[in-house]
TrEMBL record:
InterPro entries: Actin-crosslinking, BXL, CBM6, Cellulose-bd_IV, Fn3-like, Galactose-bd-like_sf, GH, Glyco_hydro_3_C. PANTHER family: BETA-D-XYLOSIDASE 5-RELATED (PTHR42721:SF3), SUGAR HYDROLASE-RELATED (PTHR42721). The keyword Nucleotidyltransferase does not apply. SMART domains: CBD_IV, Fn3_like. Belongs to the glycosyl hydrolase 3 family. This is Sugar hydrolase. It comes from Streptomyces paludis.
């Protein structure tokens, strides 16, 4: 029963059970379902109550779909609470925000909706993804996130902790990556932190294939039995590996039991946690299950869910800039051109369900203004493909194979989330020597050379298992996308590389197929997309350019983005539209931020929305027309250039100044930014401690907000806090609370927010505890992290600075105040941290070390080989250690001592050279 697919135990009346139903923004992979905006779009609403209702709708559909199909599971793997630290992360679409407070607020709302309101029975059982510090796809199965204790406690753990403490979380899923050199599936934080945050049992489900990675990719153990045993003992309760075949994992568990690596009590503990979740879902008391009566007819694709999908999509739209162009004429007298690669698209991502309803920006504007007032130009290049000495020709499909897989939600093909591409019942492409007979294809350039090609009937060129090139896919998709190509330079020309197989398109006797060697390929352009866009723009009163990404391409699960820049093709489209018509707005529909400083400078209006699900187009039209005033706010910083970002694998947000909390540059659009068609004033900010200065446990804030405009609109009130004179590096300001407030013209409302006093604190590495320092704190009521409207001070009783008690506590190497050129690694395979240089040399700084009346000796605990040098500021020598060539591997630690003469409170520097791993430093008389 410890495998994802647990068998039935008929003699006990226990049914089969599986963990893991994807439900990130709707029920995924089980066919038609209501599709809500992507998670990052839900984060952009800044509206917990709305997101709670979305969670309620999703879990109701899970129950309704399960009544029809018992493959649908009630243990849902959602939401993702990984923080959006770096916008180049390929899975940016799955998170809520870069801020832990906003992320946890939205996660709490969603999990409460998924769980339901019954005191005993859960509608569904949510599992949070992905524990822990997971923000890269590059080498995700083997890369290690170096997380200092401050970043761990103040950032990465925080979103998980708040959600778990709220009581609606059933468990977590460890991430593929390692943290501080140790795989997340062995994380000691599962025991030391996660399971201390709640009284109820938590279920830990492995990520798919991760148990095998411990041995195969990460080589952390020599045998799978050792790896499986270690992860079970660390707290993994359900193993997701080898698909539906449980025999491999249960065989490893039996082998571990026989070798004495685990005991029956370890198995019992994991099983108890699984059964606790199943009891909570009402499985063993069906007569008492209040959700057992949910049927497909009354719980799936209801009018309420359709309306909620549109409301969520409307609330997710962010107005980035507006110089008066928007809203467009509400009466519909203007002629509007809708152009761009996403103008008539309703994109899905890997965790979407199959669309029942579909609204593109073109659909939405035509419905709002009338089809006769809205024109369209996609802006793709029209091309012909010459391969070898001939031209590619797309045969006409026969009538009985004309329907494209996935087009009809009622077909079995639509149940496949991968939208099975490359249908072999369609004829392969052929070659013709007549240029006039060559098929004109639409070429879509997604940037960095990534291409998709589409036939005139709307099918995308794809490759199936038989290797033939066909116009056979409804859209790009699938775990391995078979619809993507790249032109690769070769002998002064190009070959056409098929990315799904890594092979080249070539000519075969019976059609075009992929092979290890390709034929010379040439793309001959018959019409530039920007020319079609310019014609449409010139003939319109206003232009809406819709640009962005396809969530299956150029940044997705397994693939990080290479740049923040908008793809060059789409950049040319908005420039062509603007040159033809100055009344041009750019709508960025994307799973992540872009760096578009030139578009911001040149265009009168810009908007952003995540892929908004089934109602995306209608929602966008409502905002563009002014039927809805935009009130979405950015859940992450939009940077102006790639150079604003550190390396993707640099997780030290404090040291490398990441996110709005620490970033020292000027962003293109700041965290929390978003404009309105109305205006608002802020007055009378008051802050005070509940319970008074002596025993206060929370800060109470009040601010009056007034709609000073002429339109009904929502305002998102943001409350930030910063420590006025911090003793350690603290955020420039940090979100402490927020509220989305609907206001009629002229209406005022007093917003009250309560901030736990602990939220003002930080992790004190000198003493290993959470600390709220005394002194002055500045609270700021704001419209964004860069638009502060009112501020008020709060003074906490002063506390005397506390130096590091190094004589009694010593120095754990990872508890540094500052570092350069080092990373944290695993002290042992089960617990503890050490520090090692990353490129031959690195330095640690420990501030305010109290050596009392005198320390006469120092001892270092090290593994590996190299040098450890202790110095005072100015590189005054204290002690030096030459560590000889190590034996026994990276976990064979030895101690080395030397005399010192230190007294008083001093800063200490430790330089590491070679391959040494420093665990700790201790001082004695």
């Amino acid at each position: 029963m410890l495998h994802q697919f647990a068998p039935a135990v008929e003699r006990l009346g226990v049914a089969a059970f599986r963990t893991g139903q994807e439900a990130l923004h709707g029920v995924a992979w089980m066919g038609p379902a209501t599709v809500f905006p992507q998670a990052v779009g839900l984060g952009a609403t800044w509206n917990g109550e709305l997101v709670r209702r979305v969670g309620e709708a999703v879990s109701t559909e899970v129950r309704a779909m399960r009544a029809r199909d018992d493959r649908v599971g009630l243990n849902v793997w959602a939401p993702t609470v990984n923080l959006l630290r770096n916008p180049l992360w390929g899975r940016n679409e799955e998170g809520y925000a870069e801020d832990p407070g906003l992320t946890s607020a939205i996660a709490v709302a969603y999990t409460r909706g998924l769980r339901g309101d019954h005191p005993d029975v859960w509608r569904t059982a949510p599992v949070l993804k992905h524990w822990l510090a997971h923000n890269n796809e590059t080498d995700r199965a083997v890369s290690s996130s170096s997380i200092s204790p401050r970043v761990l406690h103040e950032y990465d753990l925080l979103a998980f902790r708040t959600a778990v403490e709220a009581g609606a979380v059933a468990g977590v899923m460890p991430a593929y990556n390692l943290v501080n050199g140790r795989p997340n599936h062995l994380s000691p934080y599962l025991r030391d932190h996660l399971r201390t945050w709640t009284d109820h049992e938590l279920l830990v489900c492995s990520d798919a294939g991760a148990p095998s990675n411990l041995t195969d990719a990460e080589k952390y153990f020599d045998t799978h039995e050792e790896a499986t045993a270690a992860s079970l003992r660390a707290g993994v309760d359900s193993f997701t590996d080898h698909g539906t075949d449980s025999s491999v994992m249960t065989g490893r568990l039996r082998g571990a039991l026989e070798r004495g690596l685990i005991g029956e009590d370890d198995i019992d503990t994991a099983l108890r946690r699984q059964l606790a979740v199943r009891f909570a879902l009402g499985e063993f008391d069906p007569a008492l299950d209040p959700y057992a009566g949910i049927k497909p007819a009354d719980g799936w694709d209801t009018p309420g869910h359709r309306a909620l999908a549109r409301e969520a999509a409307e609330q997710a739209v962010v107005l980035l800039k507006n110089d008066g162009l928007l809203p467009l004429a509400p009466g519909g007298g203007d002629r509007i051109a809708v152009v761009g690669l996403l103008a008539d698209e309703c994109k899905l991502d890997w965790y979407s369900g199959t669309l029942i309803h579909r609204s593109t920006p073109l659909d939405g504007l035509r419905e709002r203004y009338g089809a006769d007032r809205v024109t369209f130009a996609e802006g793709v290049d029209r091309v012909r493909l010459r391969l070898g000495a001939g031209w590619a020709q797309v045969p006409e499909p026969s009538a009985d194979t004309a329907r494209t897989a996935g087009d009809d939600p009622g077909t079995e093909a639509a149940l496949d989330p991968a939208l099975l591409a490359g249908r072999t019942d369609l004829p392969p492409l052929t070659r013709t020597d007549d240029p006039a007979a060559a098929t004109e294809l639409a070429l879509i350039d997604w940037g960095n050379g990534l291409l998709t090609l589409r036939a005139p009937d709307g099918r995308y060129l794809s490759v199936a298992d038989d290797g033939y090139l066909r116009a056979s896919a409804a859209r790009p998709g699938g775990w391995v996308v078979q619809e993507s190509f790249r032109l690769e330079p070769h002998d002064g020309g190009h070959l056409l590389l098929h990315l799904g197989t890594g092979r080249y398109v070539s000519v075969a006797a019976d059609g075009l197929k992929v092979a290890d060697r390709g034929e010379p390929a040439e793309i001959v352009v018959t019409e530039r997309g920007e020319d079609a866009v310019a014609r449409a723009a010139a003939d319109a009163d206003a232009v809406v350019v819709v640009a962005g990404n396809d969530p299956h391409l150029a940044g997705r699960e397994t693939e990080d983005r290479e740049t923040l820049a908008l793809p060059a093709h789409q950049d040319r489209l908005w420039r062509a539209a603007l040159a033809a018509n100055p009344r041009t707005a750019l709508v960025l529909t994307s799973a992540y931020p872009y760096a578009v400083p030139e578009a911001h400078a040149a265009l009168p209006a810009l908007l952003w929305t995540a892929h908004g699900g089934q109602a995306a187009g209608a929602a966008l039209a409502a905002v563009l027309s002014g039927d809805v005033s935009p009130a979405g706010r950015l859940p992450q910083t939009w940077y102006a250039d790639d150079t604003d970002l550190p390396d993707l694998l640099d997780y030290d947000i404090i040291g490398s100044r990441q996110t709005y909390l620490y970033f020292e540059g000027t962003p293109l659009y700041p965290f929390g930014h978003g404009l309105s068609y109305s205006s608002f004033s802020y007055d009378g900010l008051e802050v005070g401690l509940t319970g008074g200065p002596a025993d206060g446990t929370a800060v109470h804030a009040r601010i009056t907000v007034t709609n000073t405009g002429t339109r009904a609109a929502d305002e998102v009130v943001q409350l930030y806090v910063r420590e006025a004179d911090p003793r350690v590096r603290r955020p420039h300001r940090q979100l402490a609370g927020h509220a989305r407030v609907p206001l009629a013209p002229g209406e005022s409302r007093t917003v009250e927010l309560t901030v736990p006093l602990s939220a003002l604190g930080y992790h004190d590495v000198a003493h290993g505890e959470w600390t709220v320092a005394g002194g002055r704190y500045v609270f700021e009521a704001a419209a964004s992290s860069a638009d502060i409207r009112r501020s008020a001070d709060l003074d906490l009783p002063e506390t005397a600075p506390r130096a590091r008690p190094v004589l009694t506590r010593g120095l754990a190497a990872a508890d540094y105040d500052e570092q350069t050129g080092t990373e944290i690694v695993d002290r042992t395979k089960t617990t503890g941290d050490a520090v090692t240089p990353t490129a031959g040399a690195g330095r640690l700084v420990f501030r305010d070390c109290d050596f009392g009346t005198g320390a006469g000796a120092v001892t270092v605990e090290v593994a590996g080989a190299g040098e450890v040098l202790l110095t005072l500021p100015g590189d005054t020598p204290v002690a030096a250690f030459e560590i000889p060539t190590a034996t026994g591997g990276p976990y064979a630690y030895t101690t080395h001592s030397a005399p010192v003469a230190l007294s008083g409170v001093r800063d200490l520097q430790i330089t590491l050279r070679g391959e040494v791993r420093l665990a700790r430093v201790d001082f004695g008389a």
